[in-house]
Amino acid sequence: MIKSSKPKSAELYELVRLIRPVHRRLARAVEANLDGSGISVGMRAVMEVLEELGPMSVPDIGRVLFLARQQIQLLVNQLEGLHLVERRPNPAHKRSPLFGLSETGHTVFGGIRAKENDAMDAVSELFSKDELQASQRVLCAMLDHFAEFEDDPDRPRGLE
Questions:
Q1: Which of 50, 100, 102, 144 is the most buried (most CB within 10 A)?
Q2: Helix, strand, or coil (residue 146)
Q3: Model-level pTM?
């Protein structure tokens, strides 16, 4: 490891500066992986939430993704049109059904994740487990420290 004369806050800021380009490149990689599938990055995000958390209402998916309910409804409608999600009764709310991945949706999302995992496996070889765990601790600490600036999940704001 290289010793630096910069203060720790400057080192942390250098990491922060890398977040946006890394995020952009990851989004483009996800998009490239989906090319030709008929699934958008947004639809993939909804599928991931449903895969991990099970059937949910549109407002609940919006809260998890910090996106407006209307945006989620459009994505769910597209996924439903492709038979990747299915509508289910919601015992807690008659007018807001639950949506879950269909059997086809589980299969399609599994294929998407398998391709993504191949790329993650390749890059993860560059780091030790300790380095990855330290990186996760840094990012989680930053999320916690700046939590007061989080959007209300029912009223997410755009970046101005």
A1: 50
A2: coil
A3: 0.82
Backbone angles phi, psi at 133, to 5 degrees: -65, -40
Stated length of the chain: 160
pLDDT digits (tens, 9 = 90+) for 55-106: 999 999 999 998 889 999 999 999 999 999 999 999 888 788 999 999 999 9
List Cβ neighbours of 102 (8 Å cut-off, separation of 6 or more): 83, 84, 85, 86
User: Within a 10 A sphere around the Cβ of 158, how many other Cβ atoms?
Assistant: 6
Residue 37 DSSP symbol: T
Q: Where are the alpha helices (DSSP H) in the chain?
A: 8-34, 41-53, 58-65, 69-81, 103-124, 129-145
Give the count of beta carbons closer than 10 Å to the beta carbon of residue 153.
15
CA angle (114 as vertex; 100, 57 as ends), nearest 5: 15
Q: Are strands 56-57 and 85-88 parallel, antiparallel or unpaired?
A: unpaired
How far, in Å, CA of 105 to CA of 119, rounded? Answer: 22
How far is residue 2's CA from residue 145's CA, in Å, rounded to a whole number? 27
